[in-house]
């Protein structure tokens, strides 16, 4: 029996406590991750009793981040990123700027200096990708337009953070850090080298990775070994992430994300996502435990006012800025609330930034403690913010006329042009969502001369549809005003083609109130959802696996009953 089993001990204690406290949290109607955070606090160095290995826990948590980002990449294509670039890029940059300025203001007020304030503000400006993805998955919005915007927003944040991590050491001397940290290459050289490394990594993934990874995954799948297939998926996620960090200076998270994006071109991408799911869930738990281990409860008593000020920046300042930016871009209130709630926390990149700032002599130890305390509290509060999205949206749109007017600024894409022939707005089909499913439905109906009006939250998609002569309205279909603009009162059918099924009941109620004879078609992914939706008379429910089984059965029966081919 080996004498040093710190790895096994850390994993066993972390998983055991996380299971027990996570179960208790769920029974108390709290998010399970609150239990995971408490488990980390209990085994951390700031509390008495057993103390787990903090270094090992953080490395294990990094594996969870890699696997999680790899899974996101498997479902998030370059096309998805391109569709949300108009809001994700300027929005993320503006939000980082404002949040950094707020953190800088606090640091200067506390007498830390400009250099410390810059690092402190940047640490508060970036959100945790793991927390956001878990919240989006729990609410079924990861693959929706809102989910794409939020994830794209954080991808931009991660890219900016990577650049900051590379540029901070040569700038440390000018910012008031140690002289040794400032030695080395100049700013221009460092910036050019960093951008060149990132560009080379992306080029290799696009040119070589998109061909090599899917081909190799197919070769492994042909062996018929499930173990080898799972091993191939995990090796690709962790191997590419490690290579990206070591060879190109890209973070583990971004490296794994790009690995998943290139693997997505494989026909086996869905199987790869399913095979890696148990590992992703298990190691993501270790991430929350490791965050809890860094928390010192004494901060609540030692620096309560400063901690409240930092939480104000994270929970209020960042959220308000994100909400305002999304609304300026004329996106629906629901999109603005989801993005603002997802950004109201700090996580893994914040720890890396303050750790580097501390090693360079830029920030005091107190700054690191405040960031960690704010991270633990904001991560624990974040699920409740997501749960409050629907009540807030409902109050704004239904109970406050003045707030409703603010929530719906003048938007030319929110209503059909006056030039649309009224004949096309009677007996037509209203399609909610123009993704992979909605796009195919709209194209087939157009080929048969059936009039269609598309309702889509992605404003860029609506612009492209109108350029092609397709009648489209921008907005959230759960808002009655949006369906009214789509002339659902005179429509023959309403087809809900979005993967988000939480708002289907609201859309159906609005459509029936305006048009009692309308037929509603919806898609779902589970038997429970299908049974619930079928309770509404006049609603036809399609479930992906069921429809696939019917199509395959129909093909088999047709081929089986057909006379054999003559040889």
Report on this model:
The chain is mainly alpha-helical. The chain folds into 2 domains: 67-275 and 304-382, Na+/H+ antiporter like fold (Up-down Bundle), CATH 1.20.1530; 417-560, NAD(P)-binding Rossmann-like Domain (Rossmann fold), CATH 3.40.50.720. 68% of the residues lie in helices and 5% in strands. The protein contains 26 helices and 6 strands. A 6-stranded parallel β-sheet has the order 3-2-1-4-5-6, with helices on both faces. Strand 2 (452-456), helix 22 and strand 3 form a beta-alpha-beta unit. The protein is globular, with a radius of gyration of 26 Å. The model is unreliable at 179-184 (pLDDT under 50).
Question: Treating each run of at least 4 consecutive H or I residues as one helix, how many helices?
Answer: 26
N- and C-termini, Cα separation? 69 Å
How are the strands of the biggest sheet laid out side by side?
A: 3-2-1-4-5-6
Give the uncertain stretches in residue-range form: 179-184
User: For the report, how would you describe the main beta sheet?
Assistant: 6 strands, parallel
Q: Classify the fold: give the CATH topology of the largest domain.
A: Na+/H+ antiporter like fold
Average pLDDT level:
80
Number of separate domains: 2
CATH architecture label name of the largest domain: Up-down Bundle
- How many β-strand stretches? 6
Shape: globular
Radius of gyration: 26 Å
The proportion of residues in beta strands is under 5%
Helix/strand/pairing category: mainly alpha
